[in-house]
Amino acid sequence: MTRPRAPRFLLLRLAAQNVGRRLLRSLFLGLAVMIAVGVGFSGSVLGWTFRHGVVTSFSRMGADLVIVPQGALVNITSTLLTVQPTDLDLDESLGAVLRALPGVAKVAPQRLVRAGAEGRAINLIAYDPAQDFTVQPWLPAGQPTPSDPSSLLVGARGGEKPGDALTICGRTLIIAGRLSQTGVGPLDESLFISFAGLDALAAAARGSRPASSTRQGGPHEHHEHHGAQECLPDLAPGRVTAFLIQLAPDASPIQARFAIGQIPGVKIVVGNPVLTAARQSLGALLWGVTAFAGLLLLSLLFVVSLLFSAIVQERFREIGMLRAMGARPGQIVSLTLMEAVLLTGLGSVIGVGFGFLLIFVSARSLGAYFDSLGAPFEGPSDAFVLAAATLSLCCGVLLGVLGALVAGRHATRLDPYRMIQMESAP
């Protein structure tokens, strides 16, 4: 039972001896793999961080277009981030129509209502956390996005702070986060709730509204109706105040506005065209960086393949003797692959550690610089970092295996006698 295992250990021993025979060359090859894996790993993590920070910064600059009801009076500066109070609204189903239009990347519905909370009037803006791209980016770095429908976000000028409780329509809501200062009044002075939370409040308001408030009557009945309205007005379901739109990187703003303009009953508010063009260019730049990283890996594959071709060629006489002594072609290929795994595997492991060092140095230097500019610099989750490290390590080993496989298979196709007669490299 132990006889089949002996050749494997013999091949592994030979591979280790071959690695140590040309120590300087092995060190340079391992160093190349280490640098490639380290730069690839740290580049993926830092690239995600930069992209997240830049995308968040552009999201903080507002939407490219805002769709409001025809006849609504809006302030262009304010509507880039959120809606303004208006008695007009749109059907929620219009969002599906907008998403289907060419050039539209994101559609974020919002609904603003006037509500009463603990004896004072507030602006309550409902948003969809899954589709929002203008409100949640203003959360401070590291603060998670609230997922509980009974939670609220408060603008920078609001009197509440995270952890405070606010009673609306008999329901106690918790302030889950406080947005950073934007300089836009409607966003800094409002409270934000999810559409699910607003539906729950509307149901509570309908339950607390006296039955007599639905009848036309005397002053007492009107006072009861007015008291119910201080909590929350009677909201029609499926209505929104506006849709905030972000265009795709390759979209033409003019064509997008023309397509949206064919929808009756809406008005288009245009954001800053300079910011739109800059954000769209960012998307093309990120794709270019990804393509460059792919070409870097491809060039590393060629380098590793060339080096192992030279390694195999200088051992033609040795490999020919092994073949003449009965070594099978598969064993010759296995010997080359084991040597590649030893070199690239060790280089990849050290490369991952080198990548962590690069990330640490960048976080200490670039992170402080981004903070001084007020731009977010928040790294990805631990799961993403672990996946990037594992993928980089596997790619480093795989490149070595592929390069050695090409060279090893070429050696097995030659005649053993001719290989013995060949001159080995000095």
UniProtKB/TrEMBL annotation:
Feature: compositional bias, Basic and acidic residues: 218-228
InterPro entries assigned to the protein according to its UniProt record, in alphabetical order: ABC3_permease_C, MacB_PCD, Macrolide_Exporter_MacB
UniProt GO molecular function: transmembrane transporter activity
Major localisation: membrane
Occurrences of domain MacB-like periplasmic core (ranges): 31-262
Pfam families, A to Z: FtsX (PF02687), MacB_PCD (PF12704)
TM segment ranges: 27-50, 285-311, 332-363, 383-408
Protein's recorded name: ABC transporter permease
